[in-house]
Amino acid sequence: MSVMELESFTYPMPAGLHVISPSDLDLRPDNTIDQVLQDPRPVTSEKNIWFFWHTGYMQMHPYAKRTVRAWHRRFSKLGWEVRVVDRLPGSTLNVAKFLDTSDPNIFPQAFRDQTIGGDYAPQHTSDLVRWPLLLKYGGVYADVGLMQIGDLNRLWNETIDNPNSPYEVLSYHAGSATERNLTNYFLASKRDNPLFERCHRLFLALWAAEGGKHSTDGMHTSPLLKGVPMMGAETDYSFVEDGRFYDRDEVSRLLTDYIIQGQVMTMVMSLVDEADGWDGPRYAAENIYAIEYMEGSQLINVFTSWDGRRAFELLSLSLPNLGQDETTQHKEAREVVEGCLARSFGFKLAHGLILRVIGETLGTLWRKHDGSDNVPGTYAHWLRYGMIHWTQDLLPPAVVFKDRRPIKVGPLLRDT
């Protein structure tokens, strides 16, 4: 959204929020922000916010660029540098400018040869850059579909960057307190984090299997992941595509391969290797600040029962005019926006494989209806305005992990 659009509407601020001083925001025009994002400064600290889009920032969908600009507007004046890395030849933000893309200790053969295939090659390419970037430079890695709401800078300062805090990792957690199920769409740490270092080694081993893989298809069968629960195994997901019925077990296998990084993190957090000095269950309980993911990053879907069309219709509504009665739909839309701004640390727009399972999402509909997320006077615009101009009074609570028995005892890369 442009500065004119940002400043021309006055929206009600929900309880539990306060206004961010304009001096702490970068409210310059969109084209100026775009120029800044395409001309990154050298890495000089660990306050980095990393994104990936394989064909470069300017080729991103407009609604995703608005999301990335919002991260920059909120946090750049607090010392954060936003970078959207890519694989575009000649780009100043090509991954090769930041990492040695020929190093087999950093990237698998398929990445080095640019032969990653399958239905979700760009997503899996992005999976392969996030841990190397965090291990070398530190900071935050976020998917371009993650809309930031909460105060990242304050949370970073009070946890990871606080020498008196035990926390070394920030993420979202999908599961109960006895499970270990971090999401990969928001990861934060300082350089050389021991959890992510082990995750990266295991991830490379999965890609190196069978002489070198070109996609994540079948990775759920790896003996290196034996004992890790499958994704979606307890749900009743199924769908029909091109005349073929995919039952719950098949959907679970598809989801697990698609989000194989989640399996990797679960294994490392559930591994005890005394010879390596690693106790994953203890590390998770003591050193990971994990935000419950439904409240923290999926609240719109909670309000709308994962009905993307419903979410799109509600957020596309215009707020009632002064003196106009609030309809039932207006009330529902207001509760969505107020709930997200006051209670959520972010909101993750869904794309990728999950579309085959649940159908259209808010993200796909914003993509299909260009500009619909940015119409002044609508609830979507109110949400975007609040993400930039207001911040929450309180930080989100961390999940209190309960100790659990390890899934695996012994070396990380031993497959028996």
TrEMBL record:
Domain of life: Eukaryota
MF terms in GO: glycosyltransferase activity
InterPro entries in the record: AfumC-like_glycosyl_Trfase, Nucleotide-diphossugar_trans
Name of the protein in its database record: Capsule polysaccharide biosynthesis protein
Species name: Coniochaeta pulveracea
Signal peptide start and end residues: none
Gene3D superfamilies (alphabetical): 3.90.550.20
